[in-house]
């Protein structure tokens, strides 16, 4: 009985300690730096193996806050071996709120491109992100799509890694989502992909992305019109066969309508 009570007290202490670190790391960069300099990362990673869900989830949150503060801290969390633990957790039977928290942390580990996360890191995370694209929860889908948008932002090698997983058909499906927090990052990801090589753009075109574009150009949100027009501009900037495809898909009339009546940024 005493052993059980002592264990319970230890769990409470762990929870309160990692909760305090979470709050500190949610503050200014100076506070996050102080937490990292104080050695917060490794104990938080160790708590990802806790048998107590509340302790484990709080550790995920703490590491997500640290990784959110820039590429240096992101890489510190990665080098602390957090990713294998996070991937183990996301494949287990845990509440949807916990899955959402893990997905948000994974997206933070994909964020920042100065520098991008390493190829090895991307390869580690992509299978889990691919799996999460079919999750029924909107918040999980949103953070998964944002993670993919970060990985495809300006790096042809990472665009290739993402495209090679076979995510494009699912991303095109999500571009028809009625949930703005899913539509926006899925559209951004596909828009990033068509900034890549001609081959990568062709792969996106082969998944019928242009069939979705006219309705996005007439979307009530100007931000969606702008993203759709930006993606089309990158398709049109390619070789002749790419330029002709938007014309063949009747994209010009809604595009001209945005130019005539849309908000300035969309125009």
From TrEMBL:
GO biological process, one term: protein transport
Domain of life per record: Eukaryota
Record keywords: Protein transport, Transport
Pfam families reported for this sequence: Arm
SMART domains to which the protein is assigned, alphabetical: ARM
Family statement drawn from the similarity comment of this UniProt entry: Belongs to the importin alpha family.
Protein name: IBB domain-containing protein
Origin species: Balaenoptera physalus
């Amino acid at each position: 009985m005493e052993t059980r009570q002592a264990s319970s007290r230890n769990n409470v202490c762990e929870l309160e300690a990692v909760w305090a670190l979470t709050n500190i790391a949610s503050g200014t960069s100076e506070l996050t730096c102080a937490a990292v300099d104080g050695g917060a990362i490794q104990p938080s990673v160790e708590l990802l193996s806790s048998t107590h869900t509340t302790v484990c989830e709080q550790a995920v949150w703490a590491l997500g806050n640290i990784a959110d503060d820039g590429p240096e801290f992101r890489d510190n969390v990665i080098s602390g071996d957090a990713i294998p633990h996070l991937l183990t957790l996301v494949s287990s039977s845990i509440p949807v709120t916990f899955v959402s928290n893990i997905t948000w942390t994974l997206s933070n580990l994909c964020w920042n491109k100065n520098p991008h996360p390493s190829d090895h890191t991307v390869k580690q995370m992509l299978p889990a992100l691919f799996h999460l694209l079919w999750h029924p929860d909107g918040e999980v889908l949103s953070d998964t799509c944002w993670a993919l948008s970060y990985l495809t932002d300006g790096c042809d090698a990472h665009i290739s890694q993402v495209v090679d997983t076979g995510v494009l058909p699912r991303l095109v499906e999500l571009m028809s989502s009625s949930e703005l927090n899913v539509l926006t990052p899925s559209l951004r990801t596909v828009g990033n992909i068509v900034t890549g090589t001609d081959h990568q753009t062709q792969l996106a075109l082969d998944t019928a992305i242009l069939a979705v574009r006219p309705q996005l150009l007439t979307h009530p949100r100007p931000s969606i019109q702008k993203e759709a027009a930006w993606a089309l501009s990158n398709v049109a900037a390619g070789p002749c066969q790419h330029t002709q495809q938007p014309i063949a898909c009747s994209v010009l009339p809604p595009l001209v309508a945005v130019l005539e009546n849309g908000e300035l940024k969309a125009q």
